[in-house]
Amino acid sequence: MRVLVTRPQAQAASWVQRLRERGIDAHALPLIGIAPAADAAAVQSAWQALPGYRLVMFVSPNAAQQFLASQPPGAAWPAGVRAASPGPGTTEALLEGGMPADAVVAPPADAPQFDSEALWQVLEHEDWHGAHVLIVRGGDGAAGSGREWLADTLRVRGALVDFVAAYSRTAPAWDAAADALLRRAVLSPAEHLWLFSSSEAIGHLQARLAELQLGPPGTAWSACCTHERIAQSARAAGFGRVLSSAPPFDDVLACVASAAKDPSIQSIDAAPSVLLPASPVTDIDPPAVAAAAVADPSPSGVRPAAARKAAWVLPAAALALLAVAASLWMAWSAQQRVHSLEQELVRRQQDSQGEATEARVLAKQAQDVSRETAAKAALLEARVAEVALQRGQLEELIQSLSRSRDENLVVDIEAGLRVALQQTAITGSAEPLVAALKSADERLVRVNQPRLEGVRRAIARDLDRVKAVGVADISTLVIKLDEVVRLVDELPLLSSASEVDTKSANPALARAQRAAGVRGGASAPAAPASSAAGWREQLQQWWLPAWNELRSLVRVTRIDAPDAMLMAPEQGFFLRENLKLKLLNARLALLSRQFDTTQSDVQAALAALNRYFDGSSRKTTVAAELLRQVSAQSRQGGVPRPDDTLAALAAAAAGR
Predict the structure, then answer these.
(1) Are 51 and 124 in a shared domain?
(2) Residue 325, SS3 per DSSP
(3) Residue 240 and residue 211 in one domain
(4) Could you tell me if 361 and 378 lie in one domain?
(5) Which domain holds residue 344?
(6) Helix, strand, or coil (residue 84)
(7) What CA–CA distance (Å, rounded) separates 455 from 447?
(8) Who contacts 584 (Cβ-Cβ below 8 Å, separation ≥6)?
(9) Is the pLDDT assigned to residue 469 strictly greater than 80?
(10) Can you say whether residue 163 is alpha, beta or left, with left for phi > 0 and alpha for psi between -120 and 50 degrees?
(11) Does the pTM of the predicted model rise above 0.90?
(12) Same domain for 111 and 191?
């Protein structure tokens, strides 16, 4: 039989040569055209991105040859990146293209088939979650092919799959020689065997037959396909006899030999010969006996015996002829029966072979369906697990966003108490903490939850302890110090008070002086009339001032602070300013909660006030009283922490 190799031109020539070396009449009839990639930039980008991939899968030898041929100058296959091959043809193309042998991963040589499913059996034991995979294919990659199945399976396992078209598959370029070879195959289909390695080649063959109006393939057409899916396409196209084999050359060679030896494609040129048993009468030749009798005359007494013998031979010869005829008829009948039996056996063999082929096709379809179902089930399981995870995360989010009223109340009360503690520490007053405890107790009364009664009891205990502690009212004490600072400028000094007392020490003398002055003014016009009586008055006027001056030279006074009496007016100004500074220092120490410093400054101010200022003045008395109040109330007193309440709140938040 003549074998027609339908692979692309470059591969078909090699296969034709190898088949002819085995004594097979092989001819190249390429039914697929290979063209460069439509997007060369995408191939170059894929080469640059190779270090980021974990696996590069080549779907065919053409994909391997074209991708390696487009390797940029100076670029090398990155270490750690593996090249996947579905079969030995692709593996051979990778090795011929310079691919390191340790970087190639492929199905074992004894695999029952070479496709994406067989390759996945080698890769399925690895963890593909988050791995980047590149699939190099032709520009006509259609959904549902083996490479799409592998891509879907990898995606189910968590891989990130990318595609790149390394070449474009086109219709073949038909010439006169190819059309002549096609016509001979159509005229004598039983003498030709089609070798298909792609379902697309069958489609191109059907299109060319329609163009030439040669009719579709018929039952006398024979094909040898390298995959069961290709065999299904051949049967769908109308091929009467389709054989399947593995892609390696030895398996294809065995398929070609099997097709050439199959009696179903040979015609029966002649019936087999039938050997009959020899008969004794057939050993006597009557014409020879008659000739012998004529040539050898006998005496007269002998001729009658010869005549009698000749008369006996004739019926025997007739019977022998009848026997031979019967034997011939029986032989012909047996031959017809054998021929009919052979035809029946051939028909039954063809029927059984068709049924077996159909059963294999159905089994393959069932296997594919089961694989697709398993892949879909795995995808659904992954989706269900993802939905369950998202649901759990959503429930946790809802629980965190919608806590119960009691939990929110406990958290709010604890936050309020801590803020009140900070305010108490800043102001030194227990009022913020008392207010926070009272507010918390009121909120718990409104809620009226039995499990929060322990918190209420703790609040009551802490509230009693806080109220029992006396705390200095810083704001009131600061106001009192400010009032004393304001009165400092108005307080009378002891030195100023003594001058006032001296001027008012002899009021009678002052009245006499004023009266003498009046009288002197009134009697001035009458002086010339009574000069004798007036000299006394003049003497009195001169004497009284002199006496008063003399009396003023000596004065007896009780002085407790002699330095206060000797203070000049300029020193009084500095005394008042120093007193103000002392009071301001006491004010700052009070605001800083430095009660010891406040006490010392207030006592110093009070001592200066008693020493240098007039104690009989009302303002001095008021200032001294204010300082005594500040000294008495500025005592160190710490506000107790509501530890019982905080512990009860922590226990309630923990659910105890």
Answers:
(1) yes
(2) helix
(3) yes
(4) yes
(5) 338-402
(6) strand
(7) 12
(8) 485
(9) no
(10) beta
(11) no
(12) no
